[in-house]
Every structure is written in C-alpha cells, then in structure tokens.
Automatic annotation (TrEMBL):
Function: Catalytic subunit of the guanine nucleotide exchange factor (GEF) (eEF1B subcomplex) of the eukaryotic elongation factor 1 complex (eEF1). Stimulates the exchange of GDP for GTP on elongation factor 1A (eEF1A), probably by displacing GDP from the nucleotide binding pocket in eEF1A.
Domain B5: from-to ranges: 303-380
One function term, GO molecular function aspect: RNA binding
Encoding gene, per UniProt annotation: FARSB
Keyword annotations from UniProtKB, A to Z: Aminoacyl-tRNA synthetase, ATP-binding, Cytoplasm, Elongation factor, Ligase, Magnesium, Metal-binding, Nucleotide-binding, Protein biosynthesis
Database matches in PANTHER family: PHENYLALANINE--TRNA LIGASE BETA SUBUNIT, PHENYLALANYL-TRNA SYNTHETASE BETA CHAIN AND LEUCINE-RICH REPEAT-CONTAINING PROTEIN 47
Family to which this protein belongs: Belongs to the phenylalanyl-tRNA synthetase beta subunit family. Type 2 subfamily. Belongs to the EF-1-beta/EF-1-delta family.
Identification of the protein by name: Elongation factor 1-beta
Gene3D superfamilies: 1.20.1050.130, 3.30.56.10, 3.30.70.60, Bira Bifunctional Protein, Domain 2 (3.30.930.10), Phenylalanyl-trna Synthetase, Chain B, domain 3 (3.50.40.10)
Localization, UniProt: Cytoplasm
GO cellular component: a single term: phenylalanine-tRNA ligase complex
Length: 847
C-alpha cells in the first residue's frame, strides 16, 4: 500500500478542526485507511542518516497514512482532506467540469507518427489562473511522484510533464528523434546537453537513473517542442529548464505521454481534479486538443462521469447488513459516490466521478458501502457453510520425511526455486535444451534465469558456501521443481522432489544407499522387484561412469543415486568426492497431488434434503446415552450446552488437535442436536457426527469428560438378602475412637510438615548466538554470566562453530523450576542487544 506523508497542521487546517492522534487514527480506520506512523522530517533523517544530518531538518509533525493502492485520489493532501470532509458530511462532493478557453483557441498538442516506436500516446490539459503557495507547490510535485511510482509503474506506462504556459507558445509537437539530434538545457542545469550526454550524466543520479532503461536502447527518443522549437520535455526522463513551474506560475500546461492510453487519461484526470480547486474558478479545467497521427482530434481531459445501477438487496446480502435503499444511498454519497433511489423496487443509481477509477464493478460499490457503514458495526454471524481443514497429503508426507531424515543425521537446506541456466545444465554436464526448464522472460540477474528442474545444484552451492565446516557434510532438501507439461493450462507443473548429498574425503556411496533404504522403509516399500523397489545401473553425465544407479518403484523410475562426476564437483568449486540421491516422492502417495476444492453445501441445504443415512450398529451411537453429566455440566440443560459452546469457541476438539474418544463420549452425552444459537458447539457437533463410521478407530481419550450416572436412591425397605448378619449393633463411631483418630492425624500432619520440601530443578543448555564474527565472545559470555537470579547457577561453557567464521556460545546452567523459567532467562540475555542476536534452548533435563 502506498504511504502518503502529510503535515499534521496543514491537514487539520484543511479539515477545519484539530484531532488528537487517537481521534485521527480512529477517523482513518472508519474511512478505510490506516495511520501508520506519527513522525517528523527531523526524526526520519536522524533515523536514516544520523543526528548530524538531521540537525537542520524541520520538526513539523508528519502523519504517514497508508492508502489503498488503487485510490489515486488520496495520494495528496488535497484529495485526502476532500475525501474526509465529504465522509464526515461537512462538504458535498465537488462537480468537475471542462471548459473552453475564455479567449482564443484551445492549446493543441500534435503527435507525429515517429512516436509509435517509443511512446505512441499523449494527453493534455490546462489549469488556468491557479495560485500556488509553497505548501501547494510541494503537494503538486509530490503527487506527480506518487503517481509515477504507482499507476505509472515508474514512468514505464505514463510520464507526467508540467510547464509554465506563459513561457511557451503552442501548438506543441510530440515527436521522436535520434539522440544526437536532440539538444536542450534540462531542468536545474546551466548548459545544454544532447540526449546522449544526458543519458551519461544521469547514470549517477540517484533519482533519474532508475528511468533511463525505458528509452536507453531505443533508436529514437521522444521529445516535445513548442512552436518556437523550445524543448518542453524529453519524456520519461526530464523536463526542460525553460518551462519549469514556480510559485509565480499562473497557468500550467500538463501533458502526459504514455504507452497505455487508459492509464494516461486517469493520470491526467487525477492531476487536474486534485489541484483545480486552487484556480480562480474552482474545479474548472481548461480543455486541450490532441491531434493524432491519423488526423483525429480528441479533446482532453475527459472528466467522465458514469452511472451504474444495482439493488440494495445485493449490498445487504454481500455485506451482511439490513438497510433500506435510501440509507445505503446516503452511505455511498459519503464515499463521493453520489447515489439515489430510482423508485423501481430497491434499485439505486450510483454516479462514479472521474476521481474514482478504482470503481470498476458492483463489488467495488458494495465495498464502499461497507466502509461507510463501519466494519465494526456489522453484526457478527456464523457462515452458512462449514468446512473442516485438512493438510495436503503431499505436504504431510513431506513433513514426516523431513523429521526422519533429520533424525538420520542429515541437515535440511532450503534454496531458491530460481537459478541460472548454467547451474542446471553446463555445471551438471547437460544441455539446456535437454532439461526442459521454464525460462524467465526478463530475468533481473544471471543467477535467476530459469526455474530449477533439479534440487542438486542448490545443495552443492550450499556445500560450497560451507566448505570450512567440519566433515562430513550431509545435507538434504525436500522441495518443488518446475517441469514443462503441455497437458497443463499454464504449460508447466510442480513436482515434489527429495535430494540428499554426502560430502567427505571418501565418496560415501554406502551412506547415500543406506539413506535410500531407510527412506523406502519409512514409505513402507519393500526391497523387491515388481511391487517393491530396486536399483539398476544407469548412465548419467552428472555421475561418475559406472557409479550411477536408477531407482525403480513398482516398475517405474522415480530417481537416481550415485557418485558425482569430478567435473561436476569442480564446477561447483568443491575439492572432495560427493555422493547424491534425488527422487520424486509424489508416486508414493498413490494418487495425484493436485486436489480440487469441493462445493461447500450450506447447512440449511443439508437440513432441507433428506440424505440416506448410513447404517450404524448399536455400538456406534447409543439410543439412550449412559449419562448426560459431563465436566462442562449437564448436557440436557441449556447451561451445560452453553459451557461446552464457550469451551469450543477456540478449539476444534474436546481434547488435543485430532478427533478422539473424548469427542465421541461427549457427543453421545448430548441427547439431541444443539440449537443454532450455540454456533461453536453446532460446528463441533456436525464435525464429530461425520466420524460415525470410524468412531471406534479414533484414538483413546486421556481424560474422562463424561461422569458416571448417579447410583439409584436406596429405600427404607430392606430385603432379607441385604441384612448384614455380621455387622455391629452400634454402627456409630464412639467419641473416644473419634478423639484418638483425630489425635493421630494431627501428629502425622505435624511430622510431615517438618520434612524439607522437595525442590524441583532442571539442567538447561543454552545456545547464545552473536550478530557476526566480529562480536567479542569473551564480552558476550561476561554479559551472560552477569545475569543473576535467585535459583540460578551458571555452569561450564564453550564456543561452537556455526559457519562463516561465526561461533556461538554454548553455556549450561541449573535452575530451580519455581523461581527461574527459560522465558525469563532468554529475555534477560537478549537484553544485551549489542552482542546477542538470539538465544535458543539446546537441551532441557529435569534433575
């Protein structure tokens, strides 16, 4: 989102009142904006360049406001203040109009056919009798820059030129010439330069160098002249110094050259609508003529208003409110969308002004109605559809493999999905045409030219960057590669691969082979031909001849393993032998990994249709629950259901993160489906109901949530079989016996209280990581040991290499659990920000 910086006092002056920071933050939220930061020019420069450079900067308070990327009308103080005033009903949305010159003909801009090779389009307009102040002038220039960075795509689509009309004379000519034929004095320069010289001059300019590539390689450069041959501008690079505007400028000629005519019209409309309020006749814009190469004459700016019709029911349904058409029309009018009812049912007519090119669909109008209504005022409701999330099988398999491969002693690496052509072809002894790689059409660097077709180069480059680490180096990666596939609509598909490498003084083929066997064991694939897996000799230019094998699973090739060819090793600047394994893991899922979303069935639809119920055994769902008493209360009462609903508000299951017998027990304790008012309980109830056919296979519960039924109340009538023939005649405890028992209990309690309480202690091993290899590790350890707490005892320490010459401090300590926690320790150590980057718990053992 673009960030607009406005001076607080100027904004409040434009709004007609002052706000506290909290009040303005709330106003921005109501309007759909966000007050990102409250700062000043001095604070910004101090933060970026230091206090010395900021000493002469202004202390004026600035508001940094985040605005939506498509709200070009809010990119300046004028548009922002105007929008907020209309939103607060303090101002009616202005009406913008195009007018002809009071005297004389319209200004004319003639486009020649030579521009077709560089920037074929242009539009123009005039702001007549405008009054600039320093603040207005700054805002005018800043809006151009904001538009250049946003809709103009860094001037590649549109370039804006503004000129003092009183210093030039029309008609103006927009043409294209060879660089050596163009000569003029550019803005803020003291002498003339040719276009070729300007390109060299601005290569070191921090601002303009980013735009040179747009026309640098073109045979001709675009240029705009007036009738006297004076250069107005060389778009999209620089304007001429002769026609630059100043605070004394009264008439501004605005031209926009472009490769996209629609964007040019929008940009021109934004410039003139935002600043026409400073003209003698506010919101009046003087027209200009543009003569196209084919002879057509078009009048700009268009400042077109258009009308759309939609129903109040559509907005109410999409937003989740229930308002009348008249009320919704008022809400839209507050968003500068003048609206009124048509009288045909609940239909409304909405007028979209030229300042709102972001409104292109009925949904955009609906969104503005929601903003004006207030998102916090929309009643919270439960969606009519419910779904149960589930992990993608391929990702679940990937996570399981990652854990076990790490347990096998291999370290996981994560590399870029893009690489150079050389990485996947030349360095591996292959031709780029054989790889079937997907190429990037306009790569920014040579390192990111294609999408990788193999994981091997990334791991070898990781090893090359960590050659100083102790041997052996054992790395693996499970990630996607991109392969061409004409059967897909995009012509390519992702394929999940597993790759592992072993780098040591010896090739270690047996290590990689053992890792393959372990992986197959985890995937429950036996070592056998046919339905199992086997390997057989293969030839591959990446591997050493005679040291390469192809992996077959159920008769299908899934990958290769072997000892890498010495040329491949040297290409990646390695000096020792290396073995590698790479295979596709998608075939082990047994089905395609590309799953599609199913249609969500509304809950009311499932109620209306009588679906055929599944046949259940008596054990699946008891006809009469054994008990309705649970830890949450009686499930036959509203109070018990309410307690369970509150419990499930932020939980998916009664116990843990998967369905279990605890859910089944509580489900059976509910005598009938809960009412719709208990939304969380209803969601859980329908979910657990879907497990009816597999409820017996769910994991057991760790806690008993359903209480046993109360025993039947005994009656005074006692049968002969229930008479205790051996009982005492006096069932009551004598007073003496009670006194003796109480005395013994008291003595036992006193004796127990004299025993020292058992103090729970833990042994903790901490990894303290510095910022870089220049950190003073002795000083870092001194800071760590300076942390003193009751119940903390520091132990031995050592420095452990991490990589790139960086070492981490590994230090042990013993703590009393009731007094010192790991969070407290980490917070205290990370307080030494000058030395400590992070603190991790490497080991934790109870003593």
């Amino acid at each position: 989102m673009p960030t607009v910086g406005v001076k607080r006092d100027l904004l409040f002056k434009a709004l007609g009142r002052t706000y506290t920071d909290e009040e303005f933050d709330e106003l921005c939220f109501e309007f759909g904006l966000e007050l990102d930061e409250i700062t000043s020019e001095k604070e910004i420069i101090s933060r970026e360049q230091g206090n010395f450079k900021a000493s002469s900067a202004s202390d004026v308070i600035l508001y940094k406001i985040d605005v939506p990327a498509n709200r070009y009308d809010l990119l300046c103080l004028e548009g922002l203040a105007r929008g907020l005033q209309v939103f607060k009903n303090k101002l009616d949305a202005p009406r913008y109009r195009c007018v002809s010159p009071v005297s004389g003909d319209r200004q004319r801009l003639i486009i020649t056919k030579e521009t077709a090779a560089v920037r074929p389009h242009a539009v123009a307009a005039v702001l007549r009798d405008i009054t600039f102040t320093q603040e207005r002038y700054d805002s005018f220039i800043e809006l151009q820059e904001k538009l250049h960075q946003n809709i103009c795509r860094k001037r590649s689509l549109v370039a804006i030129g503004t000129h003092d009309l009183d210093t030039i004379s029309g008609p103006f000519t927009f043409t294209a010439k060879r660089p050596e034929d163009i000569s003029f004095k550019p803005l803020n320069q003291t002498k003339e330069y040719t276009a070729t010289q300007l390109m060299s001059l601005y290569k070191t300019d921090s601002h303009l160098k980013h735009y040179l590539h747009i026309i640098e390689d073109k045979p001709v450069y675009p240029i705009i002249y007036d009738s006297n041959g004076i250069v107005l501008s060389m778009p999209p690079i620089i304007n001429g110094d002769h026609s630059k505007i100043s605070l004394q400028t009264k008439n501004v000629f605005i031209e926009c050259t472009a490769t996209d005519l629609t964007k040019a019209k929008i940009v021109l409309d934004m410039m003139v609508t935002m600043f026409s309020e400073y003209c003698t006749q506010p919101f009046m814009v003087e027209e200009a003529e543009v003569v196209c190469p084919d002879g057509r004459t078009i009048i700009y700016p268009e400042l077109a208003y258009r009308k759309e019709k939609l129903s109040a029911e559509f907005i109410n349904r999409k937003v989740g409110i229930n308002e009348s058409a008249e009320r919704i029309a008022q809400l839209l009018t507050r968003m500068c969308l003048l609206s009124q009812t048509t009288g045909v049912g609940d239909e409304m007519e909405v007028e979209i002004p030229p300042t709102r090119p972001d409104v292109i669909h009925a949904c955009d109008i609906m969104e503005d109605a929601a903003v004006a209504y207030g998102f916090n005022n929309i009643t919270r409701t439960i969606p009519r559809t419910y779904t149960v999330a589930n992990q993608l099988p391929l990702n679940k398999l990937t996570e399981l493999l990652r854990q076990d491969l790490a347990a096998a002693g291999f370290t996981e690496a994560l590399n870029f999905a893009l690489c150079s052509q050389e990485d996947i072809a030349d360095k591996l002894g292959k031709k780029i045409s054989e790889t079937g790689a997907v190429h990037i059409s306009n790569p920014k660097t040579a390192e990111f030219q294609v999408a990788r077709t193999t994981l091997l180069p990334g791991l070898l480059k990781t090893i090359a960057a960590n050659r100083k680490m102790p041997l052996p180096l054992k790395l693996f990666e499970i990630s996607d590669v991109v392969l061409k596939d004409q059967s897909k609509d995009v012509g390519a598909r992702n394929s999940r691969r597993f790759c592992a490498v072993y780098y040591n003084k010896t090739p270690g083929f047996e290590v990689i082979h053992g890792l393959l066997d372990r992986t197959m064991q985890l995937l429950e694939v036996k070592a056998a031909r046919g339905e199992g897996y086997h390997i057989q000799a293969a030839d591959d230019s990446t591997f050493f001849p005679g040291r390469c094998a192809e992996i077959f699973v159920r008769g299908k090739s899934v990958g290769r393993l072997g000892v890498l060819h010495p040329d491949v090793i040297s290409h990646f600047e390695l000096t020792m032998p290396c073995s590698a394994l790479e295979m596709d893991i998608e075939p082990f899922l047994g089905h395609t990994t590309e799953t599609f979303l199913t249609h969500d069935v509304p809950t009311q639809e499932t109620i209306q249709h009588q679906f055929i119920p599944c046949v259940e055994s008596q054990q699946t769902r008891p006809s009469h629950p054994p008990s309705t008493k649970t830890l949450f209360g009686d499930m036959s009462t509203q109070a018990g259901l309410k307690a369970l609903d509150d419990f499930l508000a932020d939980r998916s299951y009664v116990e843990g993160f998967v369905a279990s017998q605890a859910d089944v027990a509580v489900f059976d304790a509910i005598p009938s489906p809960p009412p719709q008012t208990f939304c969380h309980l209803r969601r859980w109830y329908n979910h657990i109901k879907s497990f009816q056919l597999e409820r017996t296979r769910l994991p057991s519960a760790k806690t008993r949530f359903v209480l046993p039924m109360a025993p039947p109340t005994s009656t005074n009538t006692t049968s002969e079989d229930e008479i205790d023939l051996f009982g005492s005649d006096d069932d009551e405890e004598s007073a003496e016996a009670a006194r003796v028992r109480e005395q013994r209990l008291h003595e036992y309690a006193a004796k127990k209280s004299k025993k020292p309480a058992l103090i729970a202690k833990s042994s903790i091993l901490l990894d303290v990581k510095p910022w870089d290899d220049e950190t003073d590790m002795a000083k870092l350890e001194e800071c760590v040991r300076s942390v003193s707490m009751d119940g903390l005892l520091w132990g031995q320490s050592k420095l452990v290499p991490v990589g790139y010459g960086i070492k981490k401090l590994q230090i042990g300590c013993v703590v009393e659990d009731d007094k010192v926690g790991t969070d407290l320790l980490e917070e205290a150590i990370t307080g030494f920000e000058e030395y400590v980057q992070s603190v991790d718990v490497a080991a934790f053992n109870k003593i």
